[in-house]
User: Fold this.
Amino acid sequence: MENFPGAHWMPWGEHDAAAYVAVPTAVSDKYSRGVLGIVTGSRAYPGAAVLGVEAAARTGLGMIRYLGDATDPVLARRPEVVAAPGRVQAWLIGSGTDSQDLGLLGALFSDALASVEPVVADAGALESVALAPRRGVIVTPHYRELARMLAAAGSPVEVAAIAAAPDRWAIRAANRLGVTVLLKGATTWIAEPDGAHLSVSIAPPWTATAGAGDVLAGILGALLATHSTAAGEPGMPARLAASAAVIHGLAASIASRGGPIVALDIAERVPDAVRRLLGADRA
Assistant:
């Protein structure tokens, strides 16, 4: 494996992330505030869709278009969601899906990846990205998912090797796949191909709970939608991904207060985390 002697990791914190919260003005409308298309969830894992939609809605954007397989539970939780296709400014795909059993969702993933809009790809969409990567995509794997992605791309690696050196493998995967990698763990490592390397260590250990990654993906999807016109600038995907990790970690800390939490607790505290960032920006 490469030694990456020139790799320098920049810690990303609250003051850094505050600059990437899109605050509406008196002339904003639901379209100018960002529209996120979401293709997540399945009959087996509908909760992933609910969690991602909830987190995206609470991060701050104008509209969500939900096109996945969990429409009923999503609308029961968030009735303002639009369950119809139309123009979007970013995509979130894959959470709560299985790459081995995609059905019609696979075609929707392909459409999103073939579009010009920036994409957050998670879970069942990761191998689709590995097989047909493009710029403008941010992937959000954990160690096992990254190993599967690299195997699909013809670069197999043991999960234990990634767990032992996640910072190096985040860089290697970004360069190999040509996409921005947000590698989840106790420290979140974000690497762009031949570009920015950012790290976030803010979430409490209680964040290691089912569904927390779906919440993170929703937050990141919202940030992409609200910054879609700048998402192609060098370094911007990594900064947005790191800012999403900061919001996620802050929301988890606020929800936990030192005790156990579940993923929905994190999503519900996202507005509190955003308010804290806005206060940090003014300090």
